[in-house]
């Protein structure tokens, strides 16, 4: 718990810290990676660092947490904390790494604020940091305990038993234990971290949704090769392109235990599963789980993509929906070419007005932030309760740039 005097200082200085946090976080990361280059090489996503996305994510998380402490009107950040804890667990983060972050973060705060970083201010924000950190540490400890492993002990080598091309830039890998043993239990919608050693020796980690994990014999992940956009300063995906070019049947790859909180729970209420592009992967995980349980739930699947050719798992998705008696599916494609639209295939962008959305539907949403914001506006217009909307953001969750996705 944070002391009352510290809360008063945090409330008074939140505008100053909040306005400076965008300057603080880049200096923090630069300091930390200078002192500990191994963290950038073997833990943090170098692509996100290059784009500044991780800096935005950290800034948004700290600002949101501090706002919650001092304001009754602040948004509920339980979802944010759960998402961070799950991500940390999938990376094998342990309690002893939090002091490293503290050291370099507060050095950066002192550098940016100068004389304004009085001992009273530093002490108050130290309480904020450790309150947030201890909340995450406790949540991560519970996540490790769910798999009955020691904190950080989440990694194992899995064998690729099948590789399949799913679209021009997307492949799926079926993974199993080399000894044929049982894989841990995974829940529909979860992901695993995958670590590869790149040619420069870096051990980079990325997360990929489990598109199928209905048995203990194998898991399936789908990986899109990210080409990058030089004109926008977006680098090509280091890990995704390495896997596409180098990982084939018979190879082994280092994988974590399954984590993630976009989990489709067993219930009788209707489901609305909405995705765009590679965001279809956790939706596929949910559909495979529903089919394996012979679910009778009412399920509406909506997917948007650039074209039918670029739609990964297009046929898989259709076949899964066909096996669920209560399911129906609609597609939207930006480019349909010479094909014509029909009652389930639409041209353009997703439009919730074209489908019947049950008022009590549990909604699961995954795709690029602009897509999710547009869908969220449509759900608001249909008066879908906010508590019924669950979402996944691929990459750093930049809460400051997607404010209306944070559950209220």
UniProtKB/TrEMBL annotation:
EC number, as in UniProt: 1.14.12.17
Keyword Oxidoreductase: yes
Cofactor(s) for this UniProt protein: heme b
Keywords on record: 2Fe-2S, Dioxygenase, Heme, Iron, Iron-sulfur, Metal-binding, NAD, NADP, Oxidoreductase, Oxygen transport, Transport
Domain (Globin) ranges: 1-141
Matching Pfam families: FAD_binding_6, Globin, NAD_binding_1
TM stretches of this protein: none
Recorded catalytic activity of this chain's protein: 2 nitric oxide + NADPH + 2 O2 = 2 nitrate + NADP(+) + H(+); 2 nitric oxide + NADH + 2 O2 = 2 nitrate + NAD(+) + H(+)
Enzyme type, top EC level: oxidoreductase
A molecular-function term among this protein's GO annotations: 2 iron, 2 sulfur cluster binding
Domain spans labelled FAD-binding FR-type: 153-265
A biological-process GO annotation: cellular response to nitrosative stress
Family of the protein in this entry: In the C-terminal section; belongs to the flavoprotein pyridine nucleotide cytochrome reductase family.
Protein's recorded name: nitric oxide dioxygenase
């Amino acid at each position: 718990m944070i002391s009352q005097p510290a809360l008063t200082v945090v409330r008074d200085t939140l505008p100053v810290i909040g306005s400076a946090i965008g300057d603080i976080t880049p200096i923090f990361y630069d300091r930390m990676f200078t002192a500990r280059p191994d963290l950038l090489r073997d833990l943090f996503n170098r692509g996100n660092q290059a784009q500044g996305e991780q800096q935005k994510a950290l800034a948004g998380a700290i600002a949101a947490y501090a706002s919650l402490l001092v304001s009754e009107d602040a948004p509920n950040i339980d979802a944010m904390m759960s998402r961070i804890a799950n991500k940390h667990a999938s990376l094998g983060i342990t309690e002893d790494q939090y002091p490293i972050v503290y050291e370099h973060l507060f050095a950066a705060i002192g550098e940016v604020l100068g004389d304004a970083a009085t001992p009273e201010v530093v002490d108050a924000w130290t309480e904020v940091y450790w309150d947030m950190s201890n909340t995450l540490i406790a949540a991560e400890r519970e996540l490790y305990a769910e798999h009955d492993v020691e904190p950080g002990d989440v990694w194992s080598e899995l064998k690729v038993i099948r590789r399949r091309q799913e679209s021009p830039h997307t492949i799926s890998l079926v993974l199993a234990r080399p000894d044929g043993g049982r894989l841990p239990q995974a829940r529909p919608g979860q992901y695993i971290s995958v670590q590869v050693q790149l040619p420069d020796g870096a051990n980079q980690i990325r997360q990929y949704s489990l598109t199928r994990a209905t048995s203990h014999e194998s898991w399936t992940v789908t990986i899109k090769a990210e080409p990058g956009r030089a004109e926008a300063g977006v680098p090509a995906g280091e890990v995704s392109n390495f896997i596409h070019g180098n990982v084939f049947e018979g190879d082994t790859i280092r994988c974590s235990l399954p984590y993630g909180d976009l989990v489709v729970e067993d219930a009788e209420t209707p489901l609305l599963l909405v995705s765009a592009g590679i965001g279809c992967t956790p939706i596929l995980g949910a559909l495979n789980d529903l089919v394996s349980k012979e679910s009778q739930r009412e399920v509406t699947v909506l997917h948007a993509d650039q074209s039918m050719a670029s739609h990964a798992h297009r046929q898989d998705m259709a076949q899964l929906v066909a096996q669920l008696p209560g399911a129906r599916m609609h597609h939207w494609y930006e480019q349909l070419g010479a094909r014509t639209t029909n009652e389930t295939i639409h041209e353009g962008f997703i439009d919730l007005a074209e489908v019947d959305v049950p008022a009590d539907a549990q909604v699961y949403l995954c795709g690029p932030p602009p897509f999710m914001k547009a869908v969220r506006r449509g759900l608001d217009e249909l008066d879908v309760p906010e508590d019924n909307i669950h979402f996944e953001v691929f990459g750093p969750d930049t809460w400051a740039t997607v404010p209306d996705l944070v559950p209220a």
